[in-house]
């Protein structure tokens, strides 16, 4: 059992009526979720409009700006300072949001789509297919997430694209389990039995009824997976498996490059580090808020 | 009453004084200070003949000695285990008179038998020991062994070693050599105890993963020399512990214990120094020098620049780099001065040739190549590789060298300046060890790569001879004129003639441009102010014999 | 319950087999040939031929797999390209350090997380609850190595309370019979060494344990919230039992069941977190070893490390599941 499964087990699935309205009601009253929403919106907007928001190009070197060879901290010309090659930190952070968002979306999309497919098939088909698929998922889960990602990247070669695939693959078993659990819980529900009695094909039931009803835990898990994806990219960058062009304005890579300059110019590490923390926090807050909002057990308590 | 109190007090004080004085004169090593020194990594092995890295040499230099050595802090040759020497008129016979009263740490006597044992041991190495990963320095100086089992080795320089009495040896060479004597300062040629070498299987080894590994215990647990410190223990990943040699023949060490520990990152070493967990550390990053100096209890010890950072230009079949104009364009297209000014924190000097200015043979008349993007583009367009000229440019990761403190930083600046000069640069990188250095040496690291060299002993052959005396896969060119002049200079024993030859060679090299040198740099040691007498040697070592703490 | 235990044990076999197949395929997926990955770039043709023979690369795939499986069962993972030592020797040397660190991190996470989550549940909806949730969320949102860097800077460099590097002060001379330094210090009765070793463990353990701390807090809170409203608790309260007794006897005991499951799962997070944290503190464990191997593309080490860690993870989960079965009466009788 993974943490995700345990936590998603907190949500007992019922027919969706009224769930969304109540959820939204509870969500807006959750201060954490509001903060999260703000953080995530800022993150997404920054990523999409990076070219407009950034004052300079992220790769424009300007060695004459260095003072005694050191990077310089925040000033009025450069809000977050300049890095060791005279590039504007603020611009690099803004463009870095783009990389993080891209990686997060692609990785989660891969994990989600393949995982959902495998999980729902396993849950609905049952029997040998179920066993085989779930054993495979177990094997993948037997390797700690980061190490699995490392292994995949080691095989595929370093680089941002490969990292996206690796983190995506790592997410597959989590979504598979989630969907399987959800399908299993719903298989014996009345409306499913009714549909089968009428003669609706199994595949039809799966796609038209069961999967839509599984949306809520998937959304929750999706936002949380975004958060872990951004952290894992930073971690992989820290291990030297990130984008191979050192000029890439990716937050994890920037954090790693700042390692040798921690004592002389610590802001070079603090800036990308805080950026990572804030965006990850945003996704975690929203995911958490969503989970609380969609938890039927808390219904009618407040 | 008062009398008794006074008397008691006086007696107590007297007893205390006597006690203190006794303890002070006790001479036990626990009364002597301990120095904790941090390097970047563990030693590879502790048999200096089989390694070539500074971490290993740092330990072996404290416990072993050669026939001669460089006066600490300088590049001047001085007697050590040999008190004087003479050479025959044809330069092929060398006589050494040895120091008396010297004992190895295992109690055996140092005498002519030990010297010939060591020389013969190296000469007779075979099989896996002849791999370049094992005996790098022996091959570089002596060229070959008694029987060359590996291809690429030349005829051996060494011919024989004969004992003439207990304290005199005669070494015969196969040809005259100007590098033989200076090279004896290299740590690989330290004198080690024949008894210990034999007892602990020092000549047992094999190739693993294509690299040499000693299989006896000598290189791990029983290195035995004549030096001011003795080996005590080595816990991999934690520390090497050396203790004072109380029977040392010369000025005995002031330290009781010397502990060398590996801390992988420059930040980690600096923070350990700031926190008092080490007394000093090597390879301080130049960007941290200001921080260390700004701390009232710390200081910076500087090594004079004795290195060169350069960009290899690899030539080979069908490569655009074979065209001199393209190589010139590269030289004009690198903004070397700005990189040296901006990235070396005042510790770097622009390098216009492949040897540092402190070495004889340095020429002020070499061709210079100031940054000129337009000229570079012109040259390219009149060459075989028009704008944009595509190049593969490699740089190493996971390393910081004194001549190249932040390779990725140098790389990015050079990439930008080359692109502004009509090149199109494709970046490649690999971790320093085991991949990058091997690729550079094999010539498989693209058209251009960042690399450098720190001198081992005070001779220009150690720089330009190593690079350009003969064909090397790294540079990939054939230029008999350069090969010949450098070989002639290496074999020449007259000092004035050698200097003239090397000057001419440097001028020829910088016209031919097998590569583009760009920086000579200081390297730094960070230390507590209460550490005294520790000397940083220009060849990258640290001299602990006179060091003390407190 | 015996059936459960047996079933659970049997489950391990296909997982381990699947794991071995995964890694076997992985080695062949590495850039370059598997031989050059495992021998490094400097291998001579003679050596390559030797290895092809020894590991059967000339034979059909399934035979290679069997040979590989046999060598892995003997813990023969090959030789490190960087250090030329046997991978299994390096694992043996480095494992105790990481084991101590992960246990310390786990103790930290549980000792602080359980009370934190408990009181958060008790004060559900109030400031303490929101605050503790927020803190735990921040804990999950900070990359472990970033937290390690910050902690080291504040507590070691700035305040000087704790050491920055290593497992033990190099000046301390003490014996290490088991290589588990904490255990060694206790066995040899060297209290000075014990205190020193613990000091070296604190910062890395806190950094490493930050994520498990967050998760333990959340799960404890959820579990306590769940249990609190169960009928048997309400009954106990109605009976007039003092609240403390109710908490202790009913709430905590039952809440601890899901918590203990979680603890086993944290092992995976801790082991991978160690790869990122140990380097910051120059802690000579499996984590920094693997990190160096990744940087140096030392594939035999990466292979051995992944196999070992995954194996460990599977075993820990096995033990946790079985003990969970022993504790949880519901499963005992299923």
Structural class of chain B: alpha+beta
End-to-end Cα distance of chain A, whole Å, is 31 Å
CA distance, first residue to last residue of chain B = 43 Å
Show unreliable segments of chain A: 6-17
In terms of DSSP E residues, the strand content of chain A is under 5%
Category from helices, strands and their pairing of chain A:
mainly alpha
Tell me, rounded to a whole number, the average pLDDT of chain B. Answer: 90
Instruction: Give the largest chain-chain interface (CB within 8 Å).
Output: A-C, 48 and 56 residues
Could you name the CATH topology of the largest domain in chain B? Dipeptide-binding Protein, domain 3
Which oligomerization state do the chains in this entry correspond to? Answer: heterotrimer
* Largest sheet strand order of chain B: 10-11-12-1-13-21-14
Topology, number of strands of chain B: 25
Classify the helix fraction of chain A into a percent range. Answer: 55-70%
Major sheet of chain B: size, sense and barrel closure?
7 strands, mixed
Order of helices and strands of chain A: HHHHHHHHHHHHH
CATH architecture of the largest domain in chain B: Roll
How much of the sequence lies in strands of chain B comes to 15-25%
Average per-residue pLDDT of chain A, rounded, comes to 82
Basic shape of chain B: globular
For the sheet with most strands of chain A, the description reads:
none
Under CATH at level 1, the class of the largest domain in chain B stands as: Alpha Beta
Explain what this protein looks like in three dimensions.
The complex is a heterotrimer of chains A (302), B (550) and C (334). Chain A is mainly α. In chain A, 70% of the residues lie in helices and 0% in strands. Chain A has helices spanning 3-8, 19-28, 31-48, 50-53, 89-125, 127-142, 145-156, 160-187, 190-198, 202-213, 215-238, 251-257, 267-294. In chain A, helix 5 packs antiparallel against helix 6 (127-142) and helix 12 (251-257) runs antiparallel to helix 13. Residues 6-17 of chain A have low confidence and may be disordered. Chain B folds into three domains: 1-42 and 236-304 and 522-550, D-Maltodextrin-Binding Protein, domain 2, CATH 3.40.190.10; 64-208, Dipeptide-binding Protein, domain 1 (Alpha-Beta Complex), CATH 3.90.76; 307-521, Dipeptide-binding Protein, domain 3 (Roll). Chain B has 17 helices and 25 strands. Chain B has a seven-stranded mixed sheet with strand order 10-11-12-1-13-21-14, with helices on both faces. In chain B, strands 16-20-15-19-17-18 form a six-stranded mixed sheet. In chain B, strands 4-5-7-6 form a four-stranded antiparallel sheet, with helices on one face. Chain B is globular. The mean pLDDT of chain C is 83. Chains in contact: A-B, A-C, B-C. Chains A and C meet through helix 1, helix 6, helix 7, helix 11 and helix 13 of A and helix 1, helix 6, helix 7, helix 9 and helix 11 of C.
